[in-house]
Specification:
The protein is of the alpha/beta class. The chain has one domain: Carbamate kinase. It has helices at 17-25, 37-46, 62-83, 92-95, 118-125, 144-154, 181-189, 197-209; strands at 3-8, 29-34, 53-54, 57-58, 87-91, 98-101, 110-113, 129-133, 135-136, 140-141, 159-163, 170-171, 174-175, 178-180, 213-216, 219-222.
Length: 223
């Protein structure tokens, strides 16, 4: 039996409950962390709020934070309903997810640090599936990939799976089967990657350095 953190992107979250249940049915302890990126952007545009990203991370104003919370709550409830009676919906700031305030150009955004929320550990011990929204105490908006990696390290997970709508990490037009942390850091520093894959790769690096096996789709990220 393994302890597994599954990070679901907002675009594919509700269609991925079968994968979560398959892991749980196989006897693994499973913790889900989800995003809500497309839903947040759509709602912000609807309300006339600026949608802006800095280095792949969402700028979050006080007004934007309210949209983030509402969108995350909606996805969380849908996931809990899809997974069924074993699921426990948890908002990260309410269970003590920790983060430090990020750079000023991101607004109310936090850089997550590894933590061990009692609510998550108790749910796993009871055979439940915690479903965690990536807000941190503050409250602060936290990139879901980074939040999942920090939580995986904090609860000493065996592995973390980033499930997304792309097959894995692309380099020169092909999906990588594996990439070492050092190589990933070099390519990131060289600006080879951009957009949403950047925080995913940074999160996988954080997890791998913390002793957690990490995979982005088909791409293994290893020390």
């Amino acid at each position: 039996m393994a302890r597994i953190v599954v990070k679901l992107g907002g675009r594919i979250a509700e269609g991925s409950t079968d994968r979560v249940l398959a892991l749980a049915d196989a006897g693994h302890e499973v913790c889900v962390v989800h995003g809500a990126g497309p839903q947040i952007s759509a709602e912000m545009e609807k309300r006339g709020l600026e949608v802006r990203f800095v280095r792949g991370r969402r700028y979050t104003s006080p007004e934007g934070l309210a949209v983030v919370r509402a969108s995350l709550q909606e996805i969380n409830e849908a996931l809990v309903a899809g997974i069924g009676s074993r699921a426990v919906g948890l908002m990260g700031d309410e269970i003590g997810l920790a983060a430090t305030v990020s750079t000023a150009d991101l607004g109310l955004v936090g850089d997550p640090v590894p933590s061990r929320p009692t609510a998550v550990l108790e749910a796993l011990a009871a055979g439940r599936i915690p479903v965690v929204s990536p807000l941190a105490r503050g409250p602060l908006n936290v990139n879901a990939d980074e939040a999942a990696a920090a939580l995986a390290v904090g609860i000493e997970a065996d592995r973390i799976d980033f499930i997304t709508d792309v097959p894995g990490v692309y380099l020169d037009g092909a999906v990588l089967g594996a990439i070492a942390v050092g190589e990933a850091e070099r390519l990131l520093a060289d600006g080879v990657f951009d957009g949403g894959i950047v925080p995913k790769l940074e999160a996988a690096i954080l997890a791998a350095k913390g002793g957690v096996r990490a995979a982005i789709g088909e791409t293994e990220v290893h020390p």
